[in-house]
Amino acid sequence: MSIAVWQVKVTFNRLEFRNWLAKTREGMRNSVFAISPYASDYVPVMEFFDTKFTNVEDDAMAYIYDPPKGWANLKDCNEFPCTAPLNTMLTFKKTSFSGI
Fold first, then answer.
1. pLDDT digit string (tens) for 40-51?
2. What is the pTM of this model?
3. pLDDT digits (tens, 9 = 90+) for 31-82
4. SS3 string of 2-48?
5. What are φ and ψ of residue 53, in 5° steps?
6. Would you report the helix, strand and coil content of the chain in percent, each value rounded to 5?
7. CB-count exposure of residue 71 (10 Å: 0-12, 13-18, 19+)
8. Domain ranges of the chain
């Protein structure tokens, strides 16, 4: 259950994120950016151009987790878990923040 990708770059242009709270009405975590729970080997580089964040709480910006201990197995990574979540890169050019 892994996403098998290498050397991928994703580009986003002119996005706007408005009124993001860190918790939903039901109390669940809410994030503008999060990585797939199946991305054990690689998370694509994501580039953002002309992005606007309006009324986005700090804790709602990104959810990037530590690799689960279950990813450490003899077949794939021995006793060291695959590290994709630790190698996440998002870049922002011409980005603005306003609000909260």
1. 777 888 999 999
2. 0.74
3. 999 887 777 777 888 999 999 999 999 999 998 888 777 777 767 666 666 7
4. CCCCCCCEEEEECCEEEEECCECCCCCECCCEECCCCCCCCCCEEEE
5. -115, 115
6. 10, 35, 55
7. middle
8. 9-98
